[in-house]
Amino acid sequence: MKVTDLIKNSSVPFTSIEIIPPRKGTSMETLFAELEVLMRYKPAFMSVTSHAHERSVEEVDGKKVERMKHKRLDTNAICIAAQSRLGVEPTPHLICRGFTKDETEDVLLTLHFHGIENVLALRGDGPLADAQTAASFVNEHASDLVEQIERMNDGVYLDPVERAEKTDFCIGVAGYPEKHFEAPDMETDLAYLKKKVDAGAHFIITQMFFDNEAFYRFRDDVARLGIQVPVIPGIKPLYKKQHLEVLPRIFYTKIPQSVQDSINRFDKEEDIHRAGIDSTIAQCKDLLAHGVPGIHFYSMSVAKPTSEVLNGLMA
């Protein structure tokens, strides 16, 4: 079922989760053991991140050879397996960087063949393509990727195909309550978001945040611009002191001083864990009281913290 239909047909706010594919050489069963725990909470959908391959050039027998390193298990294979084994609605991430338009088209056709209806269109991290390559072969921006997916929904492929079958993807995009770190200001970032929605995006999932007031301002700004698609808050459970330093640095988000103080006053690991989870529960309760359609949890493929938050919300 499409995410937009899940929202429309749900009488209560939903739960959804995001997972990260394990690195190559890791058993898929380790991931599925965590997922089986999270499935007890009947998530409306599960998004799976995608990562461009890390390439390096090495010399082998006097010849330079390009190798791909640290490759994670395939996003789409995980989605297809989870759909079959767990009955969850999968939402694979599609990214621009590291993938050509042709590769993207092939992936979309595979997902369509397997009955996957939802995708999340993102720019992704990685080096920029040169101007000539970007213009001809890759989607440089998330809005370009959304346009490609929407064209396929209209039956328009990269190469002309007579009576081409139309895909029917529900397209999600990312939103940034505290501004994307590369945007010069919030208005510019919101303009980019509107461009993605105008290109055909059907829903927005936000980057993780810890200050609900920032989210409420963002939601008001989105409405002011005439963006009418659902905005789903993305939440990362806190449960380690390291999160207070690492998460703001990596994800360019701010953690309110009151939240930091509530965690920093403890020294024992179990007390820190409990304080972080309690803070996340309080944040989620406030969001639900302010009418969000659901909450998307960045589980990082670890079940326990998200489970503890969900148990707290059900209590």
From TrEMBL:
Annotated keywords: FAD, Flavoprotein, Oxidoreductase
Biological-process GO terms, alphabetical: methionine biosynthetic process; tetrahydrofolate interconversion
GO cellular component, one term: cytosol
Keyword Oxidoreductase: yes
Cofactor(s) named in the record: FAD
SUPFAM superfamilies found in the cross-reference section: FAD-linked oxidoreductase
Alphabetized Pfam families for the sequence: MTHFR
UniProt pathway: One-carbon metabolism; tetrahydrofolate interconversion
Nucleotide-binding found in the keyword field: no
Example GO molecular function: FAD binding
Domain of life from the UniProt record: Bacteria
Reaction(s) catalysed (UniProt annotation): (6S)-5-methyl-5,6,7,8-tetrahydrofolate + NAD(+) = (6R)-5,10-methylene-5,6,7,8-tetrahydrofolate + NADH + H(+)
Family as reported in the entry's similarity comment: Belongs to the methylenetetrahydrofolate reductase family.
Protein name as it appears in the record: Methylenetetrahydrofolate reductase
Organism: Candidatus Kaiserbacteria bacterium RIFCSPHIGHO2_01_FULL_53_29
